[in-house]
Fold these 3 entries.
Entry 1:
Amino acid sequence: MGNRVARTVGRYEVLEELGRGGMATVFLARQTDLDRLVALKELSAFRQSDPSFTRRFLRESRLAGSLSHPNIVTVHDYFESGGIPYIAMEYVARGSLPPYIGHLSLAQVAGVLEGMLSALDHAEGRHIVHRDLKPENVMVTSEGRVKIADFGIAKATGQAQTGSVLTAAGSTVGTPNYMAPEQAMGGDVGPWTDLYSVGVMAFELFVGHVPFHDTDEPMAIMMRQVSDPIPAAHSINPEVDVAISDWIERLLVKKPAERVQTAGEAWDEFEEIVIALAGSRWRRAARLVSPSERPADAPAGPATPPPTVAPRPPLMPTWEIPNWGPTMSEAPTRPLRDGDEAALARTVMPEEPTRRLEEESVPPKRGRPLVKAALLLFVVLAALAAAFGGGSSPNGSSGPPVAAPASSVSGPDMALRVPAGWRRVRHAPATSLPMSGAVTAAPRGRRAGPFVEFGLVKGDAGANTALLPAAFLSSIGRAPDSAPPRKAVRLPEHGLQAWRYAGLHPLGSGRALTVYTVPTSAGVATVACGAALLQCDAIAGTLRLKTATPYPIGPSNAYASSLNSTIGQLQATTQPQEANLQSAQTLGDQAAASLALASAYESAARQLSSVDLSPADRQANAALVAALGNTVAAYRRAARAATRGDSGAYRVASAAIPGRVAQVNAALAGLRSAGYKPATPSGSGGGGDRSADSPAPRSDVGDSRSDDPSDDSADP
């Protein structure tokens, strides 16, 4: 906090000064009648004699007071005491955004942008343009959310405009580093003007500095906003995803008419990008965490933009990965034994109730007479199915009876059994699934009725948490790596774990599909079935792998152990070296510490790049390895500059390091969507002292599991 103050203003007891600027001073105060803390804004004595500033002060209270939104700081009161104007506002305890820049993951940046754009959308609906958006005017709540503050130069447009216009035509107000070209030229402003400022802030959040950070003179910055092109964020920081970089560019278009026009449109575009990169559950990791280096008595936030070289963010806490039970390496090579059912197929979604798998497609044993009767019945039903062409109600539990799988159909990588009368299909129906060595079978070999197709999706095509190719997800209207509602099942004949996706309608197929995906060492073993659900379950339940080794669905013990060990070792190594770098007084010492840090990150990247992975983990692990490698390169550039004795080059190289470390944190955050969970740090800092080898909690689940809370087929 700031200076202690002891006085009473109206019904407010002033406690201490939070900060001051050219126009006003802000105090922490207690509203005595309601016994609540507020931020009390007092017009500075220098400005009190200027009627225009007094009008602006009153205008701010009226405009902000007319807005009621979770992401806008609430104005409680406007009053005068002793001839001095005051505004009483909601007190936001954790100050403004600048101390957080350089410490945010992709999900956290998305949370900041979502809050800002939601607030601007609300203001836009009430014909209000903020005109001074910058990190200092974005406040962080105790819950880690953001609120826009300081409508001191806001402008009401259209029907919201009342009274005299705040500024004369052609005048320029705002903060040059974040100012739109039309605002710098004193032209007409609108919602698109605030969106330019959002674009500058997004650029800063992802790159580490504002576009024209190398210019100090305010007028020169304004002229560059008008005339100079802003480089793509990706060209400065290659770790910035191209889709994000393109989105920022659309906000930073010089001509207002060609820029994104509304906050709602801007958020809709960005949300799609975030879901594609971080998964649909990114909001779970979006809350801001208070920087560990910030002392308890620090001010709410700097009054000016932060320096170009931001403090280096700490690594995220050591990741604690749940122990999810045995792998399935033995499943294809031996028959099931008594007691295996509980050990097989532990599903992967943490923090959900334990469930047992139903044997949905295998009838219970009831003695030899019943078995013989059942077999006889299956033969009759199979004959009927062959005669009448099978079921025609795909993915439904009703329809023709289930025909027992009887004959084997084999491909180069796997085999399964199909009902009697089913034959290979020469020209397979379209499924939009790029399966290698695909085999299709259908009753009498006809394409028009029910069918099953199976094969391997090789390479990176299915290497994501959904285990479905991005093109296929797009064909059913899903973002890449965004899993449709699914259920974890055990394919009983060989104990394979699989995700079952029911009721999928890919473009071009003309029919609903049930798709089963099994992660293996050779790719994703995939079964696509266009028949009744129970018939599909009966056929897919016989899947047998010929050579590939299956993996369990979800987080595996081996990768969990590697992550814990590698990230724990990385933290243990980098924390003292980071302290050495911060305290280094000579370029030689800075070079030595930078090289040591580069070596630590390089060792982590090397260890993780050699891990044997399920396809479900390969994409996230590759992103983490790439982020570690880029951090190595950044530290080595800084070390080379320091070794040469070039202090200017060292400062430039060092400024890029926070962005590289932030990318490592973003990659670790991406693993959370795959079911890997961070340990809770023991202290207030970013690292904690929990051992990376400490026991991880188990979450044992049976054989059937829904990944979607709305899936009515899941057990209660």
Entry 2:
Amino acid sequence: MPAEFRRSRTSRLSLAAILVGISAGATAQTAAPPPPAPAPAAGVDVKLPQYDVTARQERLFNSIDRKVYDVGRDIQGQTGTAADVLRRIPSVDVDIDGNVSLRGNGNVQILIDGRPTALMRKANQADVISQYPADAIDHIEVITNPSAKYEPDGTAGIIDIVLKKKNEPGYSGSVRVTMGNNKRFGVGLNGNYNLRIFDFSGGITLRQDDRVRTATDRRSYVDPVSGLPASTQSAVAEHFRPVFQLGQFEIDYKPQKSDKLSEAIDSDYRYFTRYGTEADQTTIGSAQTVYNRLRYDPEYERDVESKMKYDHQFGRNDHTLSLEFSWQHDTESEDNHYTDLYASPVSPTTSDHIRVQSNEPVTEALVEYSNALPDNSKVEAGFDRTDDKLTQDHAGESTDPLTGLWVNNTSLTNEFILQQVIAALYGTYERAFGNFGALVGVRLEDAEIKTDQVTAALAAKQRYYRLYPSLHLAYDVSATGQIQLSYSHRVQRPEADDFNPYPEYQDPYNLRAGNPNLKPAEVHSIEGGYQYKNGDTTYLGTLFYRYAYNMFTTVSRYINSTTLLTTEENIGKSNSGGLELAADVSPWKPLSLNASGDVYYNQINASNLGYGTYRSTMAWTAKMSADYAWSKATLWQFNLNYTAKRLTPQGYRLPTFVANLGVKHDLKSNLSFVVAVSDLFNSQKEETKLDTPVLHDDYTRRRNSRYFYLGLVYSFGSAEKKKKPEILQFEN
């Protein structure tokens, strides 16, 4: 579906900016220093000079470390979820559960409006991405090599979801209603009322989805007890209807031009009841076990965030000081009820009841300073401290097979506490030299992580200091072409579940446990690219290389005749590199075509896990879209995504393919009708194979990903219209 690279002068862009954005199309010209201010007369106040930015500097100071995709014309973006929009962004992939990867790497940090939030914690990120309403999104920024300005979390880079917000004087807003098959629906209202001194904005969204999940798992192995050949076949079916409620409110107070105080409150609530059935059959030699498991699980999650910010300008808008304090609280609850039916050999029915409660308060204090200097340069510095404490309580009880009475199950009951404090200092310096721009930065972090498995009396502590440097270079070879080069050092910190060593009982055949000895994974990333823009034609090419060490991955092993334990381990190192290409052309006025793809090589050294010294493979992804303007009022869109076979430490993941279709018709200037079909050919599935000396496993998952939506979007308001910034259309 279409998206657009566009130039943005938001604070997040300007804070990291030097490189020409994808929007570079302006005529080349060399920046001239500002003229010297005349000497003031006695008794006359001296005003600080405004350092004008020429077109060339504007290009170099705009988006050195990112690509910006405007999703305003994306039809799926008006009816679907954030996952639907992200699937159409070059280099980004989203699996059937909502897990996001960037250039094949799943360790991506997702921000909202340039900041980390409890909403996008890694533990619940996939669920949020699959439910977050796409019509709340203004544009998406993909930052594969972030500057030292940003937290280094996310070895693949950063995806920043920037929400819609209008600040023009007056009032404006929109109402959105969508209806889909299988009782899917969405309702949204957002508005803005700007009184110049006060600016009020907010929105509410209610969305219901329908999820059907099926999975098959076929394992063959050698029984570790008897030495006989063994196999297990499992089939799982789940159904649930998640409901997503989102509320956002912000007030800005600007008593004078140089000062602004703002308060933003965001709240979201997600709930559903999961119904599941699992059928298992295990064969060891000639003996066979047949078993069924029923699941009933009401779940909910609530996130609340408050952010207070003060901005001060020292006489001009490019010399600023910002103070920010935020508080977040995430609460999750699962109430799992299982019933176990044993068909062969016949045994009494048993039941399990497992309650999981999670509470996570997070506070962050941030100070940022920025100053543009007279010599076409800019300095930035900041201090950031984040305090995070997560408490997880697991309480389990089971029925006694003989009496049928409920008894406490100690193997299902435990408490785990994770405390993490990260303090960071950073500084960046950027400068333009005619056609050349450079941004250099460094971030110093002090990270302390404490884990306490209260039930098992296992405590651990990690503390480490790291320097995270970054470098970005850009050179305009012509008015239509630019060369880019960048480097960054990134980190992947384990999640709470990755640390908790207490086994989590999933079913009689599967256990999951964390590893308190996991080290943070680190990666050194370098990439260089060239971009060409001339009229309606755009070509982009990027070469990238990643060297990673202490990467951790999921490892599965049999611990008895039937039970598979899944945990996390550090792997020695990995090397990956590849080529990213994209092209946007318009053969004739009504039609716009775009194609993008990645080809990359991945090599893993997993010798410390007992496998071959190196495992390697080539992989690639491809995306294509067509945007056809049937008339001034009607737009057709079609796109497809293909992901080739991918390597995992213990096996590989098979290819995936999905296509989407949408039509938008403007009934009036402020009223639009939308029809969208997701997964047109019902082809989306995920199949993973494990192939080790002791275990062969074929695991396939599917969901009801083909769905239909009808929608109406009505816009209203009398806000003063401002001239839009120059944009470069780039459809994915």
Entry 3:
Amino acid sequence: MEMMREKETMRSMRVMFIEMIVEFIDPMQIELLSALARERAGCTTYFSVEQEHNIAEDLKRIRPHIVALSAKTGGYTTTLRYARLAKKLVPGVLIVVGGPHCTFDQTLIEYNEVDFVVAGEGDDAWVELLQNIASGKSVDDIKNVFTKNNWFSRFKNVTQIERYQHMSDRLEDLDKLPFLDREVVYTRVPHLAKFPMRSYMTSRGCPYQCTYCFEPKFNQMYRGKGHPYQRYSPERVVEELRYLIERYPTQFIKFYDDIFWIRKTVEEEPWLEQFAKLYQKEIKLPFFLLTRCNILTEDHLKLLKPAGLHSMTMSIEAGNDYVRNEVIKRHMTREDILRAFDLCYQYDVKTFANSILAIPVRPEILKQMGKSNIELDIESLDINVRSHVTFGEFTIIHPYAGCEFSEYVEENGWFSQKDDFKKLHHSYQSWSPLNCFTQEEKAQQVNLASLGTVCLAVPWSRNMIVNVLIKVKWRWVQEYIYHPLYFLAKGYLMMFKIYPMNLGLLNFWHMAVRAWKNEVNKRSPGKNLYDEPEIVTPTKPAQVANA
């Protein structure tokens, strides 16, 4: 009888996920958490998107027991705004916050609006948290979960390394996870259901040391708790993709793994060969993937091209050797980059390269090189042009919690992790938050962030862009000329080169309008997003009521 009551309580629990914007890539973290909540905790799940829906009305209609939010360093103030709204409209609602920021900075638990913070890999923690809330059990000892009780009594005044002991081992058998719950998203965001590209991740983790990325610290956090790279079996990947394309119109698959293939051990079975054979036989759709220049070989292209490989991302990040290998620790040579992109050009695999602008270098190093900051950024543009990159993004670097780069800029006095995180913008093409650049340099960085993509669409414009156009200081030119040019170049290259699909004229028009609105919203996310919420500093640990 007791077990029946517990199951009935769990079935009656309503969990609501909230996002600011959904573009054309599935929010896979929400789809996984929804699947876990439904299948393993018996909850009913809902999804609301600020750009698409009236979140306040959704909260009042659904009256969720739990609101689940994701926090990014460049946008956790938005997360807290959603939490505050939910607390105001739904008395007794519990707020669970996870995401990359919480993994490295659990202090969000100190805000009045937040009841639980989930750090690290939260698959099992999320299910156990829901089950304990439903049954009225304590949640203070659940691995990866920080509550006001355990924070103020055990974790607030200890080192981050000691907090890492509160993390469970990595999930090693990904095949045990449920299929993504795409329906919870597609029913509320129908444009994504109609868009014929499906995103999927075959793996988790990355063993590399890039300083702008959280993965190195994540690996340090999980040292001794499992291999830093895990993946589904080829059979499981194909099984879920087959399930997906039978239910939704699909023309193209985007594999979104950090690194699509890594050989974990010398003795390991040939995962990539098995995948290519199964995919070519069962799925038969063109696909996109991410890898690294110093991994790619001609044998890989010979294997994957017949299976359907159409395009791939290989990040360049910086054209200058010192910046690339000493500052951001990409650990690859210029020769690695040129060889890999030349191979793709030879095999007609379209390429998408990411490059990072505004990476600061100490003045004495700049003097030794005889270069300016903007000249280093121009080197990044030039290596993209030389590499025949099909489409490239040029983003401005932002420091994030848990990244070595954040420590680098703070040590040099260019940024304060304590004071400046909340000032970061959602868009990677916004002005640099670092104080080591002049306003003129920042303006040129923003101009190059837009015009770099244009240059790849029309390479003959390189000299005009570098010598004249990036030096324009008027913001109205940046906003009303350069950014629309970037949008047009991006749209053309993405839709006709990187992810070619037959959308139909009317559908293409609707998607283009939506994409433009997305660009505007990312750059101008609202004036009220950056107000500072009240922080809780109780003398005794606060007691958190269960739903």
